[in-house]
Amino acid sequence: MNITERFLHYVSFHTTSDPTSTSVPSTERQKVLGAALVEEMKKMGITDAMMDQYGYVYGTIEATKGYEEKPYIGLIAHMDTSDAISGENIQARIVKNYDGKDILLNKEKNIVMRTKEFAHLLDYVGQDLIVTDGTTLLGADDKAGIAEILTLAETLLSSDEIPHGRIRIGFTPDEEIGAGADHFDVENFNVDFAYTVDGGKLGELEYENFNAASAKVIVHGVNIHPGEAKNKMKNAILMGIEFNGMLPPHEIPACTEGYEGFEHLASITGNEEETTLEYIIRDHDMEKFQAKKAMFEKITAYLNDKHGEGTYELQIKDSYYNMKEKIANHMEIVDRAKQAMEKVGVEPIVVPIRGGTDGARLSYMGLPCPNLSTGGHNFHGRYEYIPVQSLEKMVQVLQEIIKA
User: Fold this and answer.
1) What is the pTM of this model?
2) For domain 211-320, which CATH number applies: 3.30.70.360, 3.40.50.2000, 2.130.10.10, 2.30.42.10?
């Protein structure tokens, strides 16, 4: 298979993870892809390819003879897709020789990807774009990373022309729900450093990410017939809105960029009796991150004093931290990736991740792990796409990274 065929094969697998599940992995369907990857890896010569009980796939490409003492390098991608939109029955197609115009994804539903909204489309005029039919995501996040890693593996195993040290491959489940590193076997992975291949636009190179937490606010109200409610009803919905109204209106994702953090209301559910607000809290700066969490606690205390103790219940849980603190002492691996990109004509774009990757938590587990681009755009949505040429170019980047 060439890389395009490989990628299209992988996106045919439904691998959406489930944040409400208590199973590991969160969905058994991820193991279906995992088993297929193990079989493929064995056929290309990765004899130790295996999937463990948690759905993690591992394999080894041994060093070229004479290069056994070179650094051991890990390449990691994740198998699951986001639950933000359906990842089932993906109907991918290739827009050949893109002409720079709006792309009609679905004539029946009148779903159009417009250059006015996605100006970066114009960077790919003349290239071949893999798109959806507008009813699902595409799954380039992160099946593009898997396809790039295994295309590299096939190239290395079919030829001795690229000398390299020992390479370890790892494919994780449940990255999209923040659990991708939960059961990753860092000790047995046994590499000096690694890269997650899980970024966006071709050339992106990331070693900074958000500090992240989740917050749940449960509002306990008192419901009574509206006709008799005066001075008696405590409408939990309205009190939830009151809580949200006390957060800084300019600190939402729609008003922030770059290193600016945010508080994002992801869900509000309930009724007059009880309402739950679910937030994610993000900031690259640890001091500002802690201040954001403290603000939630202060608002909770204020409103409980106003409406009665126990009316507002706050639960905050840290998710992951900025990997810059752990990468700072290993900047040579960032430089290695920069130089690899430059050698194949890709301009490195060093940017902070406005999110997180498995690499963030793996770095805190003792495995320095910056993040590389896959070449994709508009992840987690119906307008997701990836240029074929970016897929191919990322394989060249990986080749340069692993060269001894």
Assistant:
1) 0.88
2) 3.30.70.360
